[in-house]
Amino acid sequence: MRPADTARLLALAAIWGASFIFIRVTAPVLGPVWMAEGRVLIGGLALAAWFAITGFDPQWRRHMKFYATVGIINSAAPFSLYGFAGIHLSASVMSILNATSPMFGLLLGAAFTGERLTARKVAGLIVGIAGVALVARLDVLEGGSDPMLGWAVAACLGAAFTYGLTGVYIKLRGAGVPPRGIAVGAQLFGALALAPFLPLLPPVSTPDAAVLANLVALGILASAIALILYFRLMTDIGATRALTVTYLIPLFGLLWGVLFLGETLTAPVIAGGALILAGTVLVTRD
């Protein structure tokens, strides 16, 4: 890759790795749904404004149903699940569990699109499952006495599942849909899907300036700018190479968690993270 492509890839991984820091700060105050709503609404409006300035047409009427579906399964659902997990799990652990998304994508692809399960990919699934088992051991997670830890781990895996499901859905139904349209449409329709739940699940407490700043960072950096970077990479280096960002996100998630939140890592979590990354490499390489 060109140096500029490498720089964009590292920047994208750093931003998405930092998103778990932002979640960890905002979710305990705003709650999962308000955090997710703020993220997609800010990100969606920022993208809509940028595309209006640049003259991009998402073709709303033509692709509205597709955008709405992706908005639910790729924005509203996973962001809410990570919001719940962020109340109970460290940013480091969430970023590690997020790396299981390609594994779910492989299983769903095999079930619905006829993707071939090679011996290497099956080995990757087995290695990844072993890694999840290590990371998800409640006795090695920070705050292991929290009775909700198991549900928080399940929420992270559920979010990773929805990301894998999105990939399959786009492959099956996304022919002719502009990728930048998916980016803005998913955010805005995700915000619409979450809106009815806002009165039912009010914020836990009043957010201060730091919480609001992290929420804006989630929307502007992790949703708007990150998606622009991602689709630029897909155009310049191809989807397969762009997907290598999956390998780097946990590394930045661990780094930011230690530097900014003072998180500590146990040996089993580190070993499990290494297994998950190894499994991801095996699953995603042709």
Key features?
286 residues, mainly alpha, 12 helices, 0% strand, globular
Note down, in words, how this protein is organized.
There is one protein chain. The protein is mostly helical and 286 residues long. The protein has one domain (3-284). Helices cover 79% and strands 0% of the residues. The protein has twelve helices and no strands. It has helices spanning 3-30, 32-54, 60-88, 91-98, 101-112, 119-135, 149-173, 179-194, 209-237, 239-242, 245-261, 267-284. Helix 1 packs across helix 3, helix 1 runs antiparallel to helix 9 (209-237) and helix 5 (101-112) packs parallel to helix 12. It is globular. The model has no long low-confidence stretch (mean pLDDT 92).
Tell me briefly what this model is.
Helix content is 79%, strand content 0%.
Succession of helices and strands? HHHHHHHHHHHH
Overall geometry: globular
Mean pLDDT, nearest integer?
92
Number of structural domains = 1
Taking the alpha carbons of the first and last residues, their distance comes to: 18 Å
Sheet with the most strands, sense and barrel status: none
Helix content: over 70%
Strand content bin = under 5%
Low-pLDDT runs: none
Output the number of helix runs.
Answer: 12
Radius of gyration: 18 Å
Category from helices, strands and their pairing: mainly alpha
List the helices and strands and how they pair.
Blueprint: H1 3-30, H2 32-54, H3 60-88, H4 91-98, H5 101-112, H6 119-135, H7 149-173, H8 179-194, H9 209-237, H10 239-242, H11 245-261, H12 267-284
